[in-house]
Amino acid sequence: MQNHSPKTSRKSEQGVALFIAIFALLLISVVALALMVMAGTESSLNSNYKSSVQAFYDARAGVEEARGRLWSKHPNSISGLIIPPATGVMPVGQVAYIRNPAGAEVVDPTDMSAANIYADRQYAAEWGGNPPTTATMIASLWPQAGVPGPLYKWVRITPRTERSAGLDVNGDTVIDNVNPLFYDGTQQVLSNQIPPLVTAYQVFEVTALAVTPTGSQRLVQYNVAPTNLNLQFPSALTFDGLTPTYNAPSSNPFDMNGNDRSGSHPMPGCAIPAQAAKPAVGVVSPTDIALAESTIPLNRLDHYLGLGATPSVGNVNSLLPRTENTVTSLNQLVSDISQVANNVVQGPAGNNSFPLGSASSPQITVVNGDLTLTGNNVGYGILVVTGTLTFSGNTGWRGIVLVIGQGNMVENGGGNEEFDGAVLVAKTLNAAGQPLATLSSPVLNWNGGGGNGVYYDSCWINNATSGVTYKVLGFREISQ
Prior knowledge:
The protein is α/β, with parallel strands linked by helices. Helix content is 22%, strand content 28%.
Protein backbone atom coordinates (compact mmCIF):
# COMPACT_ATOMS: atom_id res chain seq x y z
CA MET A 1 0.00 0.00 0.00
CA GLN A 2 1.35 3.46 -1.01
CA ASN A 3 1.27 6.57 1.21
CA HIS A 4 0.48 9.83 -0.76
CA SER A 5 0.22 12.24 2.18
CA PRO A 6 3.66 13.99 1.71
CA LYS A 7 2.76 14.95 -1.83
CA THR A 8 -0.56 16.37 -0.66
CA SER A 9 1.21 18.45 2.03
CA ARG A 10 3.64 19.95 -0.43
CA LYS A 11 0.80 20.85 -2.75
CA SER A 12 -1.08 22.64 0.09
CA GLU A 13 1.97 24.87 0.82
CA GLN A 14 2.27 26.17 -2.70
CA GLY A 15 1.86 30.07 -2.91
CA VAL A 16 2.93 30.77 0.69
CA ALA A 17 6.25 32.22 -0.39
CA LEU A 18 4.46 34.51 -2.84
CA PHE A 19 2.07 35.63 -0.13
CA ILE A 20 4.94 36.37 2.24
CA ALA A 21 6.78 38.28 -0.47
CA ILE A 22 3.70 40.38 -1.27
CA PHE A 23 3.08 41.05 2.42
CA ALA A 24 6.70 42.10 2.94
CA LEU A 25 6.48 44.37 -0.10
CA LEU A 26 3.31 45.95 1.22
CA LEU A 27 4.91 46.43 4.63
CA ILE A 28 7.95 48.07 3.09
CA SER A 29 5.69 50.27 0.97
CA VAL A 30 3.74 51.38 4.06
CA VAL A 31 6.94 52.15 5.91
CA ALA A 32 8.31 54.03 2.90
CA LEU A 33 5.05 55.96 2.55
CA ALA A 34 5.10 56.79 6.28
CA LEU A 35 8.67 58.01 5.97
CA MET A 36 7.68 60.15 2.99
CA VAL A 37 4.76 61.63 4.91
CA MET A 38 6.96 62.26 7.92
CA ALA A 39 9.58 63.91 5.74
CA GLY A 40 6.93 66.09 4.10
CA THR A 41 5.45 66.99 7.47
CA GLU A 42 8.86 67.84 8.88
CA SER A 43 9.65 69.92 5.83
CA SER A 44 6.32 71.71 6.19
CA LEU A 45 6.92 72.27 9.90
CA ASN A 46 10.38 73.61 9.19
CA SER A 47 9.00 75.90 6.52
CA ASN A 48 6.22 77.17 8.79
CA TYR A 49 8.67 77.67 11.65
CA LYS A 50 11.07 79.53 9.40
CA SER A 51 8.26 81.76 8.12
CA SER A 52 6.99 82.39 11.66
CA VAL A 53 10.46 83.28 12.94
CA GLN A 54 10.99 85.55 9.94
CA ALA A 55 7.72 87.35 10.73
CA PHE A 56 8.77 87.77 14.37
CA TYR A 57 12.08 89.38 13.50
CA ASP A 58 10.47 91.48 10.78
CA ALA A 59 8.10 92.86 13.41
CA ARG A 60 11.03 93.49 15.74
CA ALA A 61 12.74 95.40 12.94
CA GLY A 62 9.63 97.56 12.64
CA VAL A 63 9.53 98.56 16.30
CA GLU A 64 13.28 99.20 16.22
CA GLU A 65 12.89 101.54 13.24
CA ALA A 66 10.21 103.47 15.09
CA ARG A 67 12.24 103.59 18.31
CA GLY A 68 15.23 104.95 16.42
CA ARG A 69 13.23 107.55 14.53
CA LEU A 70 11.54 108.88 17.66
CA TRP A 71 14.96 110.21 18.65
CA SER A 72 15.13 113.87 17.66
CA LYS A 73 18.72 113.53 16.42
CA HIS A 74 17.97 110.66 14.02
CA PRO A 75 18.61 111.76 10.40
CA ASN A 76 15.04 110.67 9.56
CA SER A 77 13.44 111.62 12.87
CA ILE A 78 9.66 111.57 13.10
CA SER A 79 9.66 113.33 16.46
CA GLY A 80 8.69 116.70 15.02
CA LEU A 81 5.80 115.13 13.05
CA ILE A 82 4.00 113.68 16.05
CA ILE A 83 5.31 115.54 19.13
CA PRO A 84 4.44 119.26 19.18
CA PRO A 85 7.64 121.22 19.96
CA ALA A 86 5.73 123.69 22.15
CA THR A 87 4.71 121.00 24.64
CA GLY A 88 7.04 118.10 23.91
CA VAL A 89 4.10 115.75 24.55
CA MET A 90 2.17 113.62 22.06
CA PRO A 91 -1.53 114.19 22.88
CA VAL A 92 -3.69 111.28 23.99
CA GLY A 93 -5.79 110.12 21.03
CA GLN A 94 -3.17 110.95 18.44
CA VAL A 95 -1.93 108.03 16.34
CA ALA A 96 0.93 107.71 13.87
CA TYR A 97 1.73 104.81 11.55
CA ILE A 98 4.93 103.98 9.72
CA ARG A 99 3.88 101.99 6.64
CA ASN A 100 6.05 99.56 4.73
CA PRO A 101 4.15 98.20 1.69
CA ALA A 102 5.73 95.69 -0.68
CA GLY A 103 5.76 97.19 -4.15
CA ALA A 104 2.42 98.69 -5.12
CA GLU A 105 0.31 97.01 -2.45
CA VAL A 106 -1.94 99.13 -0.24
CA VAL A 107 -1.30 99.08 3.50
CA ASP A 108 -4.03 100.91 5.41
CA PRO A 109 -4.23 99.85 9.07
CA THR A 110 -7.25 102.12 9.62
CA ASP A 111 -9.37 100.18 7.07
CA MET A 112 -11.40 97.79 9.22
CA SER A 113 -13.06 95.88 6.35
CA ALA A 114 -12.98 92.07 6.65
CA ALA A 115 -10.91 91.70 3.50
CA ASN A 116 -8.07 93.91 4.80
CA ILE A 117 -5.47 91.54 6.28
CA TYR A 118 -3.42 94.55 7.40
CA ALA A 119 -6.16 96.11 9.54
CA ASP A 120 -5.06 97.23 13.00
CA ARG A 121 -7.54 95.16 15.00
CA GLN A 122 -5.36 95.32 18.11
CA TYR A 123 -6.09 99.04 18.46
CA ALA A 124 -9.61 98.38 19.79
CA ALA A 125 -8.22 96.14 22.54
CA GLU A 126 -6.09 99.01 23.82
CA TRP A 127 -8.23 102.06 23.12
CA GLY A 128 -11.79 100.73 22.88
CA GLY A 129 -12.48 101.71 19.27
CA ASN A 130 -11.17 101.68 15.74
CA PRO A 131 -8.00 103.59 14.84
CA PRO A 132 -8.77 107.10 13.59
CA THR A 133 -8.74 107.61 9.84
CA THR A 134 -6.95 110.92 10.53
CA ALA A 135 -3.87 109.08 11.84
CA THR A 136 -0.53 110.46 10.68
CA MET A 137 0.94 108.24 7.95
CA ILE A 138 4.73 108.08 7.59
CA ALA A 139 6.77 106.19 5.00
CA SER A 140 9.24 103.56 6.14
CA LEU A 141 12.95 103.91 5.40
CA TRP A 142 12.88 100.67 3.39
CA PRO A 143 13.87 99.69 0.79
CA GLN A 144 17.19 101.50 0.54
CA ALA A 145 19.57 101.45 -2.41
CA GLY A 146 17.60 98.58 -3.93
CA VAL A 147 18.07 96.40 -0.84
CA PRO A 148 14.79 94.85 0.32
CA GLY A 149 14.01 95.50 3.94
CA PRO A 150 12.12 93.61 6.64
CA LEU A 151 8.59 92.55 5.77
CA TYR A 152 6.69 94.33 8.50
CA LYS A 153 3.61 96.14 7.18
CA TRP A 154 3.05 98.90 9.71
CA VAL A 155 4.23 100.26 13.02
CA ARG A 156 1.80 102.16 15.23
CA ILE A 157 2.99 104.86 17.67
CA THR A 158 0.67 106.11 20.41
CA PRO A 159 1.02 107.72 23.83
CA ARG A 160 0.71 105.21 26.64
CA THR A 161 -2.11 105.59 29.14
CA GLU A 162 -3.52 103.42 31.89
CA ARG A 163 -6.33 102.45 29.47
CA SER A 164 -4.02 101.37 26.65
CA ALA A 165 -1.76 99.52 29.08
CA GLY A 166 -4.63 97.90 30.95
CA LEU A 167 -3.00 98.90 34.24
CA ASP A 168 -3.99 100.98 37.25
CA VAL A 169 -0.56 102.55 37.59
CA ASN A 170 -1.27 104.80 40.58
CA GLY A 171 -3.59 102.39 42.39
CA ASP A 172 -6.61 104.70 42.58
CA THR A 173 -8.97 102.04 41.07
CA VAL A 174 -9.63 104.35 38.09
CA ILE A 175 -8.28 103.42 34.65
CA ASP A 176 -7.20 106.82 33.33
CA ASN A 177 -7.39 107.47 29.61
CA VAL A 178 -6.81 111.23 29.73
CA ASN A 179 -3.36 111.71 31.24
CA PRO A 180 -0.44 110.09 29.40
CA LEU A 181 2.15 108.07 31.27
CA PHE A 182 5.67 109.37 31.91
CA TYR A 183 8.86 107.59 33.00
CA ASP A 184 10.85 109.15 35.85
CA GLY A 185 13.85 106.86 35.64
CA THR A 186 12.50 104.19 37.97
CA GLN A 187 8.75 103.91 37.33
CA GLN A 188 5.89 105.11 35.17
CA VAL A 189 3.67 107.86 36.57
CA LEU A 190 0.69 109.83 35.31
CA SER A 191 1.54 113.18 33.77
CA ASN A 192 -0.51 115.03 36.39
CA GLN A 193 1.21 113.24 39.29
CA ILE A 194 4.91 113.75 38.57
CA PRO A 195 6.62 114.57 41.90
CA PRO A 196 8.42 117.91 42.27
CA LEU A 197 12.14 117.95 41.43
CA VAL A 198 11.74 114.88 39.22
CA THR A 199 12.45 114.87 35.51
CA ALA A 200 10.15 112.54 33.59
CA TYR A 201 9.67 111.73 29.91
CA GLN A 202 6.61 110.56 28.00
CA VAL A 203 6.13 106.83 27.39
CA PHE A 204 5.08 105.60 23.95
CA GLU A 205 3.58 102.32 22.80
CA VAL A 206 5.19 101.12 19.58
CA THR A 207 3.33 98.22 17.94
CA ALA A 208 4.34 96.45 14.70
CA LEU A 209 2.59 93.95 12.43
CA ALA A 210 4.63 91.73 10.10
CA VAL A 211 3.16 89.43 7.43
CA THR A 212 5.34 87.15 5.31
CA PRO A 213 4.52 86.09 1.70
CA THR A 214 3.53 82.64 3.04
CA GLY A 215 0.99 84.22 5.39
CA SER A 216 2.76 84.07 8.76
CA GLN A 217 1.82 87.00 11.01
CA ARG A 218 3.40 88.33 14.19
CA LEU A 219 2.44 91.35 16.27
CA VAL A 220 4.91 92.76 18.81
CA GLN A 221 4.95 95.83 21.04
CA TYR A 222 7.56 98.00 22.76
CA ASN A 223 7.02 100.52 25.55
CA VAL A 224 9.70 103.17 25.11
CA ALA A 225 10.78 106.47 26.66
CA PRO A 226 13.90 108.61 26.48
CA THR A 227 16.65 107.32 28.74
CA ASN A 228 16.09 109.31 31.92
CA LEU A 229 19.24 110.58 33.61
CA ASN A 230 17.15 112.94 35.78
CA LEU A 231 19.67 115.75 35.39
CA GLN A 232 18.65 118.97 37.10
CA PHE A 233 20.70 122.01 37.91
CA PRO A 234 19.60 124.45 40.64
CA SER A 235 22.36 126.96 39.77
CA ALA A 236 24.75 127.88 37.00
CA LEU A 237 27.71 126.48 38.97
CA THR A 238 26.92 123.92 41.68
CA PHE A 239 29.36 122.82 44.37
CA ASP A 240 27.86 119.48 45.41
CA GLY A 241 29.61 118.93 48.75
CA LEU A 242 30.42 120.77 51.97
CA THR A 243 33.21 123.37 52.33
CA PRO A 244 34.01 123.82 48.64
CA THR A 245 37.27 125.40 47.53
CA TYR A 246 36.59 128.19 45.07
CA ASN A 247 39.48 130.26 43.75
CA ALA A 248 37.56 133.05 42.00
CA PRO A 249 39.13 135.05 39.16
CA SER A 250 39.53 138.80 39.32
CA SER A 251 39.18 139.73 35.64
CA ASN A 252 36.52 142.19 34.55
CA PRO A 253 35.11 140.06 31.66
CA PHE A 254 34.34 137.19 34.04
CA ASP A 255 30.73 136.56 35.09
CA MET A 256 28.65 133.89 36.79
CA ASN A 257 25.00 134.21 35.85
CA GLY A 258 21.95 132.23 36.93
CA ASN A 259 19.55 134.15 34.68
CA ASP A 260 18.43 131.80 31.93
CA ARG A 261 20.05 132.44 28.52
CA SER A 262 22.14 135.38 29.61
CA GLY A 263 25.33 134.30 27.86
CA SER A 264 26.86 135.49 24.61
CA HIS A 265 26.05 132.29 22.70
CA PRO A 266 22.29 131.62 22.68
CA MET A 267 21.20 128.36 21.11
CA PRO A 268 19.71 128.92 17.64
CA GLY A 269 16.03 128.06 17.26
CA CYS A 270 15.31 127.22 20.90
CA ALA A 271 11.58 127.55 21.59
CA ILE A 272 11.23 126.13 25.11
CA PRO A 273 10.09 128.60 27.79
CA ALA A 274 12.80 130.36 29.79
CA GLN A 275 13.19 129.18 33.38
CA ALA A 276 13.11 131.31 36.50
CA ALA A 277 16.35 132.82 37.74
CA LYS A 278 18.68 130.58 39.74
CA PRO A 279 21.69 131.37 41.92
CA ALA A 280 24.87 131.99 39.99
CA VAL A 281 26.70 129.74 42.47
CA GLY A 282 24.99 126.97 44.41
CA VAL A 283 26.29 125.37 47.61
CA VAL A 284 24.76 122.77 49.93
CA SER A 285 24.76 124.50 53.33
CA PRO A 286 24.09 128.01 54.68
CA THR A 287 27.64 128.29 56.07
CA ASP A 288 29.09 127.57 52.64
CA ILE A 289 27.36 130.67 51.25
CA ALA A 290 29.68 132.90 53.27
CA LEU A 291 32.66 130.67 52.41
CA ALA A 292 32.05 130.99 48.68
CA GLU A 293 31.39 134.72 48.87
CA SER A 294 34.61 135.31 50.82
CA THR A 295 36.71 134.17 47.86
CA ILE A 296 35.14 136.62 45.40
CA PRO A 297 37.10 139.88 44.92
CA LEU A 298 35.18 142.80 46.44
CA ASN A 299 35.22 144.72 43.17
CA ARG A 300 33.65 141.73 41.34
CA LEU A 301 30.69 140.95 43.62
CA ASP A 302 28.27 142.43 41.10
CA HIS A 303 29.54 139.98 38.45
CA TYR A 304 27.61 137.17 40.16
CA LEU A 305 24.06 137.65 38.93
CA GLY A 306 20.89 135.60 39.27
CA LEU A 307 18.43 134.83 42.03
CA GLY A 308 18.70 137.21 44.97
CA ALA A 309 21.12 140.04 45.62
CA THR A 310 24.70 140.15 44.37
CA PRO A 311 26.75 138.15 44.71
CA SER A 312 24.14 135.55 43.80
CA VAL A 313 25.20 132.59 45.95
CA GLY A 314 22.51 130.29 47.37
CA ASN A 315 21.95 127.10 49.33
CA VAL A 316 20.53 124.66 46.76
CA ASN A 317 20.73 121.47 48.83
CA SER A 318 16.95 120.93 48.91
CA LEU A 319 16.74 121.46 45.13
CA LEU A 320 19.14 118.71 44.11
CA PRO A 321 17.41 115.62 42.65
CA ARG A 322 17.99 112.22 44.18
CA THR A 323 20.51 111.39 41.46
CA GLU A 324 22.79 114.21 42.61
CA ASN A 325 22.73 114.28 46.42
CA THR A 326 24.83 111.31 47.65
CA VAL A 327 28.07 109.54 46.81
CA THR A 328 26.17 106.44 45.73
CA SER A 329 23.68 108.25 43.52
CA LEU A 330 26.32 110.43 41.86
CA ASN A 331 28.58 107.46 41.10
CA GLN A 332 25.54 105.63 39.76
CA LEU A 333 24.78 108.66 37.60
CA VAL A 334 28.25 108.42 36.08
CA SER A 335 27.63 104.72 35.39
CA ASP A 336 24.21 105.43 33.86
CA ILE A 337 25.61 108.12 31.58
CA SER A 338 28.41 105.76 30.55
CA GLN A 339 25.76 103.29 29.35
CA VAL A 340 24.32 105.79 26.86
CA ALA A 341 27.50 107.72 26.05
CA ASN A 342 28.76 108.25 22.53
CA ASN A 343 32.31 108.20 23.85
CA VAL A 344 33.84 106.52 26.91
CA VAL A 345 37.51 107.48 27.15
CA GLN A 346 40.27 106.37 29.50
CA GLY A 347 42.25 109.29 30.86
CA PRO A 348 44.53 111.09 30.75
CA ALA A 349 42.85 112.48 27.66
CA GLY A 350 43.13 115.61 25.52
CA ASN A 351 41.67 117.52 22.60
CA ASN A 352 41.81 114.69 20.09
CA SER A 353 40.57 111.92 22.36
CA PHE A 354 36.91 112.24 21.33
CA PRO A 355 34.62 114.33 19.08
CA LEU A 356 33.61 117.63 20.66
CA GLY A 357 30.27 117.60 18.84
CA SER A 358 28.21 120.48 17.52
CA ALA A 359 24.91 122.21 18.23
CA SER A 360 23.12 119.84 15.84
CA SER A 361 25.02 116.76 17.02
CA PRO A 362 25.82 117.00 20.75
CA GLN A 363 28.03 114.28 22.19
CA ILE A 364 27.77 112.42 25.47
CA THR A 365 31.32 111.80 26.67
CA VAL A 366 32.65 110.16 29.82
CA VAL A 367 36.36 110.45 30.64
CA ASN A 368 37.53 108.00 33.29
CA GLY A 369 40.47 109.99 34.60
CA ASP A 370 41.96 113.39 33.82
CA LEU A 371 41.03 115.54 30.84
CA THR A 372 42.80 118.63 29.54
CA LEU A 373 41.26 120.76 26.78
CA THR A 374 43.40 123.52 25.29
CA GLY A 375 43.45 125.94 22.39
CA ASN A 376 40.39 127.24 20.55
CA ASN A 377 37.88 124.49 21.27
CA VAL A 378 34.20 124.42 22.21
CA GLY A 379 32.39 121.21 23.12
CA TYR A 380 28.67 120.43 22.88
CA GLY A 381 26.61 117.97 24.92
CA ILE A 382 27.30 116.21 28.22
CA LEU A 383 30.87 115.97 29.50
CA VAL A 384 31.62 113.79 32.54
CA VAL A 385 35.14 113.70 34.01
CA THR A 386 35.99 111.48 36.97
CA GLY A 387 39.51 112.94 37.44
CA THR A 388 40.75 116.52 37.13
CA LEU A 389 39.18 118.59 34.36
CA THR A 390 41.42 121.34 33.02
CA PHE A 391 40.38 123.99 30.51
CA SER A 392 43.14 126.20 29.12
CA GLY A 393 43.16 128.93 26.53
CA ASN A 394 40.09 129.88 24.54
CA THR A 395 37.99 126.83 25.47
CA GLY A 396 34.35 126.50 26.49
CA TRP A 397 31.31 124.26 26.55
CA ARG A 398 27.65 124.40 25.46
CA GLY A 399 25.64 122.01 27.58
CA ILE A 400 26.44 120.13 30.77
CA VAL A 401 29.78 119.67 32.51
CA LEU A 402 29.90 117.14 35.39
CA VAL A 403 33.15 116.79 37.33
CA ILE A 404 32.17 113.81 39.49
CA GLY A 405 34.81 111.66 41.09
CA GLN A 406 37.94 113.51 42.15
CA GLY A 407 35.80 116.68 42.05
CA ASN A 408 38.57 118.93 40.76
CA MET A 409 38.15 121.50 37.99
CA VAL A 410 40.80 123.94 36.79
CA GLU A 411 40.20 126.85 34.42
CA ASN A 412 43.35 128.57 33.19
CA GLY A 413 42.19 131.90 31.82
CA GLY A 414 43.48 133.86 28.91
CA GLY A 415 40.65 133.31 26.43
CA ASN A 416 37.18 134.73 26.07
CA GLU A 417 35.06 131.58 25.74
CA GLU A 418 32.34 130.63 28.23
CA PHE A 419 30.27 127.78 29.62
CA ASP A 420 26.61 127.95 28.54
CA GLY A 421 24.37 125.46 30.33
CA ALA A 422 25.40 124.24 33.78
CA VAL A 423 28.47 122.99 35.67
CA LEU A 424 28.42 120.66 38.69
CA VAL A 425 31.47 119.63 40.72
CA ALA A 426 31.32 116.79 43.27
CA LYS A 427 34.02 114.80 45.06
CA THR A 428 32.86 111.20 45.44
CA LEU A 429 36.17 109.29 45.19
CA ASN A 430 39.39 109.26 47.17
CA ALA A 431 42.84 109.51 45.57
CA ALA A 432 42.84 105.75 44.94
CA GLY A 433 39.53 105.95 43.09
CA GLN A 434 37.48 104.32 45.84
CA PRO A 435 34.07 105.72 46.87
CA LEU A 436 34.06 108.02 49.88
CA ALA A 437 31.68 107.54 52.78
CA THR A 438 30.16 110.99 52.21
CA LEU A 439 30.58 113.79 49.72
CA SER A 440 33.84 115.64 50.27
CA SER A 441 35.00 119.16 49.34
CA PRO A 442 34.80 119.96 45.61
CA VAL A 443 37.41 122.25 44.09
CA LEU A 444 37.31 124.87 41.31
CA ASN A 445 40.43 126.92 40.67
CA TRP A 446 39.78 129.64 38.10
CA ASN A 447 43.20 131.10 37.33
CA GLY A 448 44.32 133.99 35.17
CA GLY A 449 42.49 136.99 33.85
CA GLY A 450 40.45 135.64 30.94
CA GLY A 451 37.31 133.63 30.57
CA ASN A 452 33.76 134.87 30.45
CA GLY A 453 32.41 132.49 33.11
CA VAL A 454 29.40 130.21 33.47
CA TYR A 455 25.90 131.11 32.25
CA TYR A 456 22.84 129.03 33.09
CA ASP A 457 21.07 128.11 29.84
CA SER A 458 18.10 125.72 29.77
CA CYS A 459 18.24 125.52 25.97
CA TRP A 460 21.80 124.19 25.91
CA ILE A 461 20.98 121.84 28.80
CA ASN A 462 17.97 120.50 26.91
CA ASN A 463 20.02 120.18 23.73
CA ALA A 464 22.69 118.20 25.59
CA THR A 465 20.18 115.67 26.91
CA SER A 466 18.56 115.31 23.48
CA GLY A 467 21.56 113.17 22.59
CA VAL A 468 20.03 110.45 24.78
CA THR A 469 18.24 107.76 22.79
CA TYR A 470 14.95 105.98 23.58
CA LYS A 471 15.05 103.10 26.05
CA VAL A 472 12.87 99.96 25.88
CA LEU A 473 10.85 99.76 29.10
CA GLY A 474 8.86 96.69 28.12
CA PHE A 475 8.36 94.16 25.31
CA ARG A 476 5.61 91.70 24.53
CA GLU A 477 4.29 89.63 21.66
CA ILE A 478 0.55 89.96 21.14
CA SER A 479 -1.47 86.90 20.22
CA GLN A 480 -3.85 87.27 17.30
